[in-house]
Amino acid sequence: MPVIELKIPNLGESISSVTFSKWLKPDGATVSMDEPLCEIETEKANQELSADSAGKLTWVAKEGEDLAVGALFAKIDTDAAGSTAATPAATAPAVATPTPETTNTSTNYATGFPSPAAAKILEEGQVSGDQVKGSGRDGRITKEDAQKAVENKPAPTPTPTVEKATPVAAPAATTAFSRNERRERLTRMRRTIAKRLVSAKNNTAMLTTFNEVDMTAVMQLREKYQEAFVKKYGIKLGFMSIFAKACAKVLLEMPDVNAALDGDDIIFHDFADISFAISTPTGLVVPPIRNIESLKFSDIEFKLKELATKAKDGKLSLEEMSGGTFTITNGGIFGSLMSTPIINEPQSAILGMHAIKDRPIVVEGEIKIRPMMYLALSYDHRVIDGSTSVTFLVKVKNLIEDPIALLMDL
Q1: Domain end marker among 40, 58, 81
Q2: Does 184 fall in a domain?
Q3: Predicted structure pTM score
Q4: pLDDT tens track of the chain, all 410 residues?
Q5: Catalytic: which of 256, 269, 299, 381?
Q6: How many separate domains does the chain show?
Q7: 66 catalytic, yes or no?
Q8: CB 343, CB 206: distance < 8 Å
């Protein structure tokens, strides 16, 4: 077949349509096999589509268009691949060799160059040698040439005296109020996020419970062992991996918080696949790290860094975006003091971390300044009882305030 039709491939069970983002090759261009042709945007990530064969590309889809899986987006004429052989490079025009007739024999290194005496006169008279025509041998500027140039130098133009004007009251400034508007279509990812957030709000019995945690012990732990941790693992120990390990431990102790509702059934998990909210230029993504309960702190930090880099570059795969039994979001990195995070369906709970602020609190009957963080747990009341949610948050708080108990699995 001389013409090959390119269609939107099947990208997963949950994806039935995509948004055609942009062409990477112009219409009519000659492309090679496996060369990227375009970008498409799915509900979860962006992806490039490549040429199945070499040939001439013909556009079918338009940028910004929504296409169903299996829809035609381009054609490639394979017959054109053989007819576009590389053409020999154009012969460079010959450079004319200067002939004795075209060569200026009257100029050499001395032309326009002042003698030492002439140079001194020109410098004192503030005259440039470029303005003087030499009369000496080979066009050299002589002492006499310099003297004549200084004598004939035009007098400087006097600077006009500007009289100080009487200040006039400036007219009252008028403020121009902009009334401009612009309309942009939501990206597919933003549309998907909007649908899921509204669905979570409308289809779950969502409540939020709060607590606060003293970060003193964790901060001291990081300060004491950070240098050794970096030296051994090559990455810093952050707060997120500590919270993840604490949540994983409590999730396995309290399976209701780690469960998901499926119709009239509840699905329990004996593992903790924790999703982490990552902000990207195109929207919020929540890729999970699987089996947090079995990973070391360094493993979690490396995986978090990898996921964050891929998310910001738009290179997360569909597999990396799917799954998760519980979610952690940290609005504190943007300065949020308190919030009510929305559940990431079909999960039943999400933990919100916030900014660390020094606040006065009572410690053993005395008022002390401590680094405090508000914690928020939003949960689906259909699956999780109020007492369960409060107990979960208290257990996490206790592990963060006593990280040695977390390390010793107590």
Answers
A1: 81
A2: no
A3: 0.63
A4: 588 888 888 876 667 788 888 888 888 888 888 888 888 887 666 778 888 888 888 888 888 788 888 888 888 888 776 555 444 444 444 444 444 444 444 455 456 667 666 777 777 777 776 667 777 766 777 777 777 877 777 666 555 555 555 666 666 666 678 888 888 877 777 777 787 788 888 888 899 999 999 999 999 999 999 999 999 999 999 999 999 999 999 999 999 999 999 888 999 999 999 999 988 877 788 899 999 999 999 999 999 999 998 888 878 877 888 889 999 999 988 888 999 999 988 899 999 999 999 999 998 899 999 999 999 999 999 999 999 999 999 999 999 999 988 887 77
A5: 381
A6: 2
A7: no
A8: yes
Evaluate whether residue 278 is within a structural domain.
yes
Quick check: is 381 catalytic?
yes
Q: Which long-range contacts (C-beta less than 8 Å, at least 24 apart) are formed by 292-295?
A: 292/244, 292/245, 292/247, 292/248, 293/245, 293/248, 293/249, 293/251, 293/252
Residue 278: which CATH number?
A: 3.30.559.10
Among candidate residues 81, 115, 135, the one where a domain is terminated:
81
Collapsing DSSP to helix, strand or coil, 79 comes out as helix
The residue behind tokens 């090559």 is 234
Which structural domain, as residue segments, surrounds residue 221? 193-407
Of the listed 27, 66, 79, 385, which one is catalytic?
A: 385
CATH code, domain carrying 21:
2.40.50.100
In sequence order, what are the beta bridge partners of 18? 67
On whether residue 76 sits in a domain, the answer given is yes
